[in-house]
Amino acid sequence: MAVGPITPRTTLLLTGSTLTNNLLRTQAELFDAERQIQTGKQINKPSDAPGKISTLNALNEQIEARAQYTQNLTFAQGLLTFADQSLADATDILIEAQATASSQVGVGSDADTRQAMAFVVDEQLAGLIEAANRQFNGISLFGGDNGAAADGDVFVDFLGGVRYLGGSESLNLDIGSSSSQALNSNGIDAFGALSSRVRGTADLDPQATDDVRLADIDGADARGFRPGSVEVTIDGTAVTVDLTTADTLGDVVTRINDAIDGVDPAAGTIAATGTGLTLTANAGHTISIADLQSGNAALDLGIDGTTATGASVAGSDLRVRLDELTNLADLGATIDFASGLTITQGLTTKTADFSAATTIQDLQNDIDDLDLGVRRESNDAGDGLDRVSEVSGIALSVGENGGTTANDLGIATFGAATQLADFRDGLGIETVDGDDLSFTLHDGTTFFVDISGVLTVDELMTAIQSAADAATVAAGDLTVSLAATGTGLVFTDSTAGAEDFVIANAGLSNAAEQLGILGNAGAGTTINGTDEATVKVESAFTALAELADALRRNDALGITLAGGKVEDRLDGVVNARALVGVDSRRVQDLLERSADMDIADRQLRSLIEDADLTEVISRYGQLQTQLQASLQVGSISNQLSLLDFLG
Amino acid sequence: MALGGSLQIGQSGLLASQAALEVVGNNLANVATPGYHRLDPKLVALPGREAERGVQFGGGVNLDAITRVVDEALEGRLRGTISDESGASTLVDLLAQIEAIENELSDVDLSTRLTAFFNAWSDLSNNPQDLSLRTLVIQEGESLARFVNDLDTGFKDTLLQTDVAIEQAVGQANDILERIETLNTAIAIQEGGAGEGAHGLRDERTLLLEELSQLVDISVVEQPSGRADIFVGSLPIMLNGQSRGLEARQQTVDGELVIDVVIADDQSPIDTSAGQLGALVEFRKVHLDDAINALDQVASQLIWQVNRIHSQSQGLDGFTSVTATNAVDDSTVTLDDLTNNGLDFAASHGSFRVHLTQLSTGARTTSTVAVDLDGIDPTNDTTLASLAADLDAIAGVSASIGTDGRLTIAAENSGFEISFSDDTSGALAALGVNTYFTGSDAFDIGVNSAVSSDPAKLAAARDHLPGSNTAALAIAQLRDGGIDELDGLSLTQAWSRHVEDFAGRSGQASQRLESAAVVKANLAATQQSISGVNADEETIELIRYQRAYQASARFISTVDELMQTLLSII
User: Fold this and answer.
1) Helix (H, G, I), strand (E, B), or coil: what is residue A485?
2) Cα–Cα distance for residue pair B338/B51, rounded to 1 Å
3) Nearest residue in A to B474, CA atom
4) Which residues in chain B have their CB less than 8 angstroms from residue A11's CB?
5) pLDDT above 70 covers what percent of chain A?
6) For A133-232, where are the alpha helices, taking DSSP H only?
7) Whole-angstrom Cα distance, residue B318 to residue B325?
8) pTM assigned to the model
9) Residue A593 backbone class (left: φ over 0; alpha: ψ -120 to 50; beta: rest)
């Protein structure tokens, strides 16, 4: 409080104004103390404590944001609890199914019982679908980043199987930009809802063109494109070219060429060609490109340190990734798009016609048009296409349609590179010591094939052809090839004679049957093998569907195999449940940490913002006394006058 | 010495004492009169005659002068502190108005509304297809927009009130100057160049000068005639006793209305760095402008950042037709030339994608639209007209520019919908295509009616996955995400920085007020000490002059007795 002036000579006005000022000041302080007592806060508006408002604002923001994050975490906790319950139910269902499978193997059961139990498994499958479709507050527990709307399903009946419509990734929870936590689970992690084997093995070699977005290149250093400026030196004249706002390779080309033109239009050019950029310096000129200090743009563009003197110099491979707008004409690999694919999903076979397609997206649209539950994804390297089945319980095969499209794209389910280990849903081909296959041709020639050590379909065809050669079958009399349309092997016997053309198991081997080539063409010349390398979604739904199917077929071996798959999938569900538990634990930890931090922040805010009532009330009493004293002193001093003492 | 002369001496004593008593009486009468300067009677002994060589008799006493006790230098300093205190007090009050409008640290403030807005997006990210949560996001956006509008209105109202206050203060100053002008003339006439005498008029003028000091910091130079010339800085606002008048001049500078105070005679702007006028002008030019700009900047970035995300994301439904919310004045001007195209946000070099989806099959065709704004070969740079042409060239898509300068993009055939993604240029957000907010600043921020009328249009997703929450998350995380245009601060941090800044300004103004008040109190006390009336002191003077009167009367009585004695001899 300011102390009033002390002057050698006082006047009535001075005394009065000083008294008034002091009273007003005391009353103002009393008012402030009253306000603090009434509100419990010493800071009610920013100007009450300018020095503290920064900290107070920061604390308020943290507390308010944390309240929302806590709400989100609580929501996630509820969802995870539901997910855990759903997975527990799924686990119970699969355990029951496993028990069903065990009980129906061996002599303890018969066809009628198995037929009846098939209905039980159907119900179990329905129960599993119901558990997988559950929602928490309208959000799919297992729909990933594309769950169904409220009361909708992400697992639906489709072509006799169960189709997954959800997303491939989990939804993320908002707990601040510096941290992340999955909100829900996706059907792939929990139930294995998408197939995993039709992965594009062919490098389609997407080319560098002007239209390629810089966001779609992995860059020469495999670290993407890091925007920056580069230095272009044209015949000794250095020019800085800003590529920070470049969007495409075309922008890079335009800006560097503009810089070159600015120095000497005849010096040369840069262009996007092949898999990268090519710098060309015309005769008598030298152009070099390098990163500026601490920049990486030229490095990522594969042209850092590139110098061209009267010649063209190609930069490094930019590792262009496939994009939905990648032109099919801009693929370095030669692809037979004209023929198309033959795709079989369950019992439905359709032909994908790519003849009018010009982009990758057109391919996807053509396949989507088939409505077979097959989705396209780029492979991890970004240079090939995957075909992923969304439908559990039925088999998918992708084959040729008279050309080489499937093989060229590397997505044939039954191709030269197909592993024999992938046959029969991954059970592979069982071989025996000695010969496995027996061939009898029309001319009576019989030979055997030992496929021990054979790994791929291509090796199988080679082994058969070699065995035929060893049996002195003339070249061309027996041919083995991949089916021109669809999938499978095709055998042609061109010999003449009265014997039946037969392919059979040799000895105790079941290889011919397992390879799908067991057959007797009689007098015919061709045996068309079946596709035993179809792809199935390795999901719990598939396992139950196969179990039900095996029970209906009274197939003891099938029941055994399906029971094994149920067990495998049970492991997957249990693992998924464990992961949900881990997530739940983390969410709980985050909630507890959030609560602790909230308490700490609120305590700090209270120290800053809240009034110390003991201190304020004491001060209030002092001010009351001060006011009373001022009033009394003022009234006395104003009453005293010399005039009162004069007679 | 003759007895008659002695009577003269006695008479002079009576007269002088009586006059001095009148002065004392006047002082006592004005003991509580503000602005009154006490008068000091100067009694001087009159010279007498020489009785004989070397022997002098006195001639009595004479009231030589009645002096107005004043320290002009102190009065000048006092006026300066009055100006300082008045200015600081006014500024404190004005800054308090800003603080009251913003109402921070309460539950009804922008910080709270921003938090509620981002919370709504955060809630939506937990269930992006929930229509009730979508509606909540729209409601919170509208609530936020209205609050920002209200803040802007509050600031603009304060601006108008400040302008009126400046006008009123200038009118008040002119009124005071006219009254001083009148007093100047009266003082000059009454004193006739003597330099004193018109005490009452001078006190009245002093009071008016103090009143004027509250408005503007002045210095006063008194002319020999008694007229006072008044200066603000080095510029006279009253010269030769005549007011030159003040005016509040409004003019438009860089499109904004500014106001300053000028001398009416020659339109010279005066220094308004102190006093109430100074505080009003400073508040308008600096503080209020800063507050408006801070709000506009936060609102503008809120619009831009949210729209950048929203415009390249997807709702549950696409558009059969979408019309941009922002109009372009000249469709042939490049999209980054804000001066000539009339847009508020600039697109940059880049591209965006347009997707045409056939509803019956879900088949989607995607096209990239390049936005060329690299400045290389300007004839190729993108204008609204060229953009519309590029869009129109996409199979199945039509694009046109309305007479109002707004772009409309539509699917050419029924059964198709349009959506957008991957906008690296910001063209969609700049034009207002598939945006969440409309407007460009605090004045006109609002929620796009295309979204508010159809919550399914709220773009919470990316990659055309209806259940995706990617865009909702991105918008929710603007809560604490740094923004280059805000020097790396988030939206809430930027607003908090403004609040902190103004808290500091209020604190400084309060400190200035407190220190000015202390200085003023000290100087006023000193002034009172010198010029004020002390009743006890005057009472003593009263007794003194009363005794002097009694003594003179006694002396006359004694002389009278002497004369009676002398006459009795005859």
Assistant:
1) strand
2) 103
3) A177
4) 31, 528-529, 532-534
5) 98
6) 187-191
7) 17
8) 0.90
9) alpha
> How many residues are listed for chain A in this entry?
647
Phi, psi of B189 (to 5 degrees): -70, -45
pLDDT > 90? residue A386: no
Is the torsion defined by CA of A322, A539, A370, B391 positive or negative?
negative
Whether residue A64 has pLDDT greater than 60: yes
Contacts from A311-315 at CB under 8 Å and sequence distance 24+? Answer: A311/A280, A311/A281, A312/A278, A312/A279, A312/A280, A312/A281, A313/A278, A313/A279, A313/A280, A314/A273, A314/A274, A314/A276, A314/A277, A314/A278, A315/A220, A315/A276, A315/A277, A315/A278, A315/A279
d(CA A104, CA A335): 49
- Judging contacts by C-beta atoms under 8 Å, the chain B residues touching residue A21 are 521
Q: What is the CA radius of gyration of chain A?
A: 40
Do the strands A526-528 and A478-482 form a parallel or antiparallel pair, or are they unpaired? Answer: unpaired
> Could you report the per-residue pLDDT of B6-47, keeping only the tens digit for each?
888 999 999 999 999 999 999 999 998 998 999 999 999 988
CA distance A60 to chain B (A): 9
Least confident of A637-646, B53-62, B371-380: A637-646
Contacts of residue A149 in chain B, CB cutoff 8 Å? 129, 466-467
pLDDT in tens, B495-528: 999 999 999 999 999 999 999 999 998 999 899 9
Nearest to B469 among A138, A171, A246 (CB): A171
- Secondary structure class of A158 (helix, strand, coil): strand
Alpha-carbon distances of B173 from A239, A401, B218, B269, rounded to whole Å: 63, 97, 11, 15
CA distance A153 to chain B (A): 12
Token representation of residue B40: 């000091």
Q: Which of A3, A13, A229, A643 would best serve as a mutation to test chain B binding (most B beta carbons within 10 A)?
A: A13
Q: What is the pLDDT of residue A12?
A: 84
Instruction: Please give the C-alpha separations between residue B197 and each of B5, B190, B200, B390, B499, in angstroms, as whole numbers.
Output: 31, 7, 8, 90, 56
| Position B186, amino acid | A
- Which residues make Cβ contacts (< 8 Å) with residue B135, sequence separation at least 6? B455
What is the pLDDT at residue B255?
80
Q: Is pLDDT of B2 > 80?
A: no
pLDDT at A293: 85
Distance from CA of B12 to the nearest CA of A (A): 27
pLDDT, tens digit, 9 for 90 and up, residues B285-305: 999 999 999 999 999 999 999
Q: What is the CA radius of gyration of chain B?
A: 40
pLDDT at B51: 67
Burial of A585 (0-12, 13-18, 19+ CB in 10 A): exposed
pLDDT average, residue stretch B62-73: 90
The SS3 assignment for B333 reads: coil
Question: B66 near B38, Cβ under 8 Å?
Answer: no
Cα of B429 to nearest chain A Cα, Å: 17
Contact A9 B510 (CB under 8 A): no
Task: Give the ipTM.
Answer: 0.90
Give tens-digit pLDDT for B79-134.
999 999 999 999 999 999 999 999 999 889 999 999 999 999 999 999 999 999 99
**Do the Cβ atoms of A4 and B533 come within 8 Å?**
no
Residues of A in contact with B533 (CB under 8 A): 11-13
Predicted local distance difference test score (pLDDT) of residue A633: 87
| Residue of B122, B353, B532 with shortest CB distance to A14 | B532
Q: Report the residue of chain B nearest A146, measured CA to CA.
A: B467
Is the pLDDT at A1 greater than 50? The verdict is no
Hey, is A621 helix, strand or coil?
helix
